[in-house]
Amino acid sequence: MAGKILIILDFDRTLIEDDSDRWVLTNMGLTNPFYQLQSTLPWNSLMDRMLEELHLQGKTVNDIAVCLQQVPLHTRMIEVTKTAHALGCDLKVVSDSNAFYIRTILEHYGIYNCFSEIITNPTVVDDRGRLRIFPYHDMASPHSCDHCPPNLCKGSVIEQIQSSISESQRKRLIYVGDGRNDFCPTLKLEAGDFVMPRMNFPLFDCILNNPTLVKAKVHKWSNWEELATILHELINNISNEEEIKCLTGYQLNSLECKEAPESANEPLNVVTD
Ligand SMILES: [Mg+2]
Ligand SMILES: [Zn+2]
Known about the structure:
Blueprint: E1 5-9, H1 11-15, H2 20-27, H3 31-37, H4 43-56, H5 61-68, H6 75-87, E2 90-98, H7 99-108, E3 117-121, E4 123-125, E5 131-133, H8 154-164, E6 172-177, H9 183-188, E7 194-197, H10 202-209, E8 217-218, H11 224-255
Parallel strand pairs: 1-2, 1-6, 2-3, 6-7, 7-8
Antiparallel strand pairs: 4-5
This protein binds magnesium ion (MG) and zinc ion (ZN).
């Protein structure tokens, strides 16, 4: 019944412990050019410009990969990702980082193949051997969301995912994030879904300040140990609940039961904090 579960994870400071852009900037000596250009370019273009800087300094794509392989990823997150995948959950990353950084890090930790999709800013290595980052949304046909940066509205990504799943295949969504840009997708979640904000980070504050706007059940976390434990529990509880639903549906259809088993109507018994 874990096949009924879709887990969507933000990447920076959620799946990994640091911010991948910040990691490359600080560990590859880009702090000065970053501060010089910070106010002149939107984030997405600025990161692409920083990669031009690295290329001019003679740094290769492989040098960037080696730097990214040092990014810490908590062992419990590796474990829970592998378990969720093995149980049949669908896992996706939705991130404002970029395809090269995310793939490099997840492959390094051996969990890239656990994800069915990485939805993020695309990258290419051009004919000069320089890594380029492009916006996720086509700038010629911008998204209409006022809350998100022009290159990526995570809310519209969630809507696309939701509309691509037929009613009979409907999945229970678990969204995990920390940033302000994780609030837009949070608002797209439905009752029966879950949002897991990182405690005392912007998403957590947005939810706290707008509790009536959020339909999903909220489970906060403050470290990766806790995040992995809650994810495990949610997967178990949702699986059990879906099994009961299925069994109840089967009994109602084929055995003409007049009443569903009592447990089918019990609320989810989830431990949060
Ligand atoms: Mg983040
Ligand atoms: Zn948005």
